[in-house]
Amino acid sequence: MPRPSRDSYGDQKPPYSYISLTAMAIWNSPEKMLPLSEIYKFITDRFPYYRKNTQRWQNSLRHNLSFNDCFIKIPRQPDRPGKGAYWALHPAAFDMFVNGSLLRRRKRFKLLKSDKEILENELAALTNINRIFFAPPNPAADINPAAHPSVVVPQASPPNITKTPDTSVTCIRPKRSFTIESLISPDKPITPVVPSATHVVPHVHPWMVSSCYDLAFTNPMALMQPAAAHYEAYGLASAEELFRVSQL
DNA sequence: CCTTGTTTAAAACGAT
DNA sequence: ATCGTTTTAAACAAGG
């Protein structure tokens, strides 16, 4: 009756749901986000049960990633080549589990439609940043910038000026060390990849970029600790800089 | 071509 | 029995 320790399930099925296993893997990672293959690896590494029937449970796991709002898909930044995106936990899903035990979940974590739309816009904007700043120099773009099928502008509302005063779930986070200072690293290790002068940047609505940027810390509850880390990784220290670069 | 991701449908399961 | 969740299955698009 000693409760089996983490790794001692042997060939028995561990009592964790796929959501729990995935959360476990993500939390365990240094950056709190992982590509799919690493989530697989985490699970098979410590739960031998999942070394069999991989097609079955991996399909299920992917289903969970897509289906549940508690997981968000963050586009891979181009200086880290690889296959899929990164998967992270939505910050508001932090207390998804009762005491953090991973064995008991609260109610299903479901985003409000509006919040979900915002999130999708954020991520779409991130993807666009990727394409714009890291697109290979394309001579054809100079001739006809209009023909830029690569850039997908989210169909969203213009700036959602009417920011509804947080009708969403008010959940109080104990403490979050998520300061602006932590975002603006004093030392930029590498200069961001500067688009070549001849490369005409496809137009992006500034609101897209700015909202994408500042929402990360003006609205602490909203979205994307991981994404904010991405902005930093791009070497983009301020919204102004982001504007400047995006309008060149 | 295989991995990654999305989506629908239904079975299985557990709590009330 | 009902309700909500979890698991499984399967079809399909997209991208490297």
Automatic annotation (TrEMBL):
Biological processes per GO annotation: anatomical structure morphogenesis; cell differentiation
Fork-head domain span: 13-107
One GO CC term on file: nucleus
Keyword Glycoprotein: no
Keyword Lyase on entry: no
PROSITE patterns, sorted: FORK_HEAD_1 (PS00657), FORK_HEAD_2 (PS00658), FORK_HEAD_3 (PS50039)
Protein name stated in the entry: Fork-head domain-containing protein
Organism: Psylliodes chrysocephalus
Organism ancestry: Eukaryota, Metazoa, Ecdysozoa, Arthropoda, Hexapoda
